[in-house]
Design brief:
Residues 18-258 form the ABC transporter domain. By secondary structure, the protein is α/β, with parallel strands linked by helices. It is built from 10 helices and 10 strands. The protein has helices spanning 5-8, 56-64, 86-91, 109-120, 135-146, 162-173, 192-203, 218-224, 242-247, 249-255; strands at residues 18-27, 30-40, 45-49, 71-76, 79-80, 94-96, 180-184, 210-214, 227-232, 235-240. Residues 27, 30, 32, 50, 52-58 line the site of adenosine-5'-triphosphate (ATP).
Length: 263
């Protein structure tokens, strides 16, 4: 019998933003992810920590659909999206930023954001310049403001500081009313000042937008997350509130090599 949308949806209104059940991913004989079960509530902000090779990026790829899991199910806002291609997940409000920059460096900040807004809107995609009174242009301006780039709105991306380019990537992920965003190491390469700005931007996002963030900078991760999932060797090693994770001796031993003594 053909599966209906209704049968794929669990009770609406109470659905989790994200629900993974028994997700595993093999690359040949290598288990990059093993039996990952986790739940993220709507609007929740979740940090994913773990040393190199822990499986964080593979987890993101399974959630976005860039790779399918070898086993398990992934539900997005109650709907089983395990077999969905990435664009079907984007249509349902999922977004992602990458470690590699995907910006148009020859265009201005506002033009980059405007194109992102056009790209996810239902209208036909075209390389038209924004016109005064275009509602997408107003949305693009709001997004530029949300990532603290108002003062460089008309500057070409190539002339932005590195940290500003990363802020712009967040604006692109915000285009088209997202409900859940995956941020892949947004603080990588940022100066301490830029990191503080990033924390302000992330914590200042509208409350209904949840996110998951891979972040090696523990201070950033713990400040922008409601809960933390710690991964090790493709499995969930610990999950808890930021202070529980920070104070956990096993986490300190494993992740910080016992060097994080600063209380
Ligand atoms: N496309 C692939 N083909 C083969 N092996 C892969 C592939 N992608 C990831 N892996 C392997 O899966 C494991 C998990 O990698 P993953 O990139 O998910 O870890 P990570 O926690 O994101 O690490 P990092 O912090 O270094 O980005 C690693 O052993 C990696 O070599």
């Amino acid at each position: 019998m053909a599966e209906t949308v209704a049968s794929r949806l669990s009770t609406t209104g109470t659905a989790n933003a994200l629900e993974l059940r028994g997700v595993s991913r093999l690359f040949g004989a290598l288990a990059a992810l093993t039996d990952i079960t986790m739940t993220v509530r709507p609007g929740e902000r979740r940090a994913v920590l773990g040393s190199n090779g822990a499986g964080k990026t593979t987890l993101f790829n399974c959630i976005t659909g860039d790779f399918g899991p070898s086993a398990g199910t992934i539900r997005l806002f109650g709907e089983d999206v395990t077999a969905f291609p990435p664009y079907e997940r984007i249509r349902r409000g999922l977004r992602r930023t990458y470690q590699i920059s995907l910006l148009f460096t020859g265009l201005s900040v506002i033009d980059n954001v405007y194109l992102a807004c056009r790209g996810v809107s239902r209208g036909r995609f075209s390389l038209m310049r924004p016109r005064r009174g275009d509602p997408l242009l107003a949305s693009a301006r709001d997004l530029v403001d949300a990532v603290h780039l108002t003062h460089v709105r008309d500057t070409a991306v190539a002339n932005l500081a590195y940290g500003q380019q990363r802020q712009l990537e967040i604006a692109l992920a915000l285009a088209g009313a997202p409900r859940f965003i995956l941020f892949d190491e947004p603080a990588a390469g940022l100066s301490p000042t830029e990191r503080r700005e990033l924390v302000e931007i992330l914590t200042g996002l509208p409350e209904h937008i949840g996110y998951m963030i891979i972040e090696h900078d523990m201070d950033v991760a713990l400040r922008v997350a409601d809960r933390v999932t710690m991964m090790h060797n493709g499995r969930i090693f610990k999950e808890g509130l930021p202070h529980e994770i920070e104070d956990d001796p096993e986490v300190q031993e494993l992740y910080l090599g016992g060097a994080h003594g600063g209380h």
